[in-house]
TrEMBL record:
GO terms for cellular component: mitochondrial inner membrane. It comes from the Eukaryota. SUPFAM superfamilies: RCC1/BLIP-II. One of its GO terms (biological process) is positive regulation of mitochondrial translation. This is Uncharacterized protein. RCC repeats lie at residues 114-170, 171-223, 224-277. GO terms for molecular function: guanyl-nucleotide exchange factor activity; rRNA binding. InterPro entries: Mitochondrial_GEF_domain, RCC1/BLIP-II, Reg_chr_condens. Pfam families: RCC1_2. It comes from Amphimedon queenslandica. Signal peptide: none annotated. PANTHER family: RCC1-LIKE G EXCHANGING FACTOR-LIKE PROTEIN.
Length: 315
């Protein structure tokens, strides 16, 4: 793990979006001694940012719209080469944003009244709505986003690359989207366009938090149990298994996490767990180790307050 400070982040007094250039994966150089290039992408009046693949979304909590900033044409047909195209995505009147999660090419927005809205590519069912003939849900007209999950209220949402988890207010987990690696936890490996309850003994517990990686899923229960399912080819679920896919939620039983898990940041081939005491543990094939393993490995004795991952890196 490298630490770095951007002088731009310190001196900037108005909200702007910056991109950090530079390869931090498997680097042997000390980034503290390098000049990292921070590229200004766009100014914004929003206070939160979430990124997908080829796009990012900015928004304000309790706001009535999101701002979609696209680099490619997957989510915006009006894209121009080498330019960021900005598009406003409005919610129905009276709806205020609570949080937003992004996948490879889809966006799920959760409002203060616990209603979920979807926008983007849904050919694999990742938006939780039956795909139309065009297979793409482009926002048109007044840009009101597609409503999903009208049969249950959503407490939390988390997007993987092409799948989505929903945590209902009753503590039950629902999933939709691509399931070739078992990442929806429904026991199936075909995609599902309708949010479906996960299966197994996880339903005997009240789930309080959900997390997703590229093709992995995690849930923490009220009693502190950690469940994992999905792609386990590199041991990124922290589960010993002779199969590369875990299609139903299974308990992660590792004494390293006995003190409780505060946060999970899952990438493609590895997962990072931050304990309540601020310790960081990883499993799978991560940039800091050459051998993939389901066994949890502690980075160092530092105390951390947060951790984020991209597909192949950790910050």
């Amino acid at each position: 793990i490298y630490s770095f400070i951007s002088k731009h982040a310190v001196r900037q007094r108005h909200n702007s979006v910056w991109k950090l250039d530079g390869n931090i994966n498997n680097s042997t150089n000390d980034l503290n001694n390098q000049s990292l290039k921070m590229q200004l992408l766009c100014p914004t009046n929003d206070s939160h940012i979430v990124s997908g693949c080829g796009f990012f979304v900015t928004y304000r909590k309790n706001g009535n719209f999101l701002t979609l900033n696209s680099f490619d044409s997957v989510l915006n047909r009006e894209i121009e080469k080498d330019k960021i195209k900005t598009k406003e995505l409005s919610l129905p009147p009276g709806k205020g944003l609570k949080t937003v999660s992004c996948g490879r090419s889809h966006i799920i927005a959760l409002t203060n009244d616990n209603t979920a809205f979807a926008y983007g590519l849904t050919s694999l069912g990742q938006c939780g709505v039956v795909p139309p003939r065009s297979r793409i849900l482009y926002i048109v007209g007044d840009a009101v986003m597609e409503i999903i999950g009208d049969k249950f209220k959503v407490f939390q949402v988390s997007c993987g690359l092409d799948h989505t988890l929903f945590l209902g207010r009753n503590g039950k987990v629902f999933a939709c989207g691509w399931a070739a690696d078992g990442q929806t936890g429904t026991g199936a490996t075909s995609f599902n366009a309708v949010p479906t309850p996960v299966v197994g003994d996880i339903n005997e517990h009240v789930v309080t938090r959900i997390y997703t990686g590229a093709n992995t899923s995690f849930a923490i229960t009220e009693s502190g149990l950690l469940y994992a399912w999905g792609n386990n080819e590199y041991g990124q679920l922290a589960i010993e298994s002779d199969k590369p896919q875990v299609v139903e939620p299974r308990v992660v039983d590792d004494c390293s996490l006995n003190g409780g898990v505060r946060h999970i940041a899952a990438a493609d081939t590895f997962t990072t767990f931050m304990t309540e005491s601020g310790q960081l543990f990883t499993c799978g094939y991560d940039p800091g180790h050459t051998d993939p393993s389901p066994k949890l490995r502690q980075y160092n004795n530092e105390c951390y307050t947060d951790v984020k991952t991209g597909l192949h890196y950790c910050i």
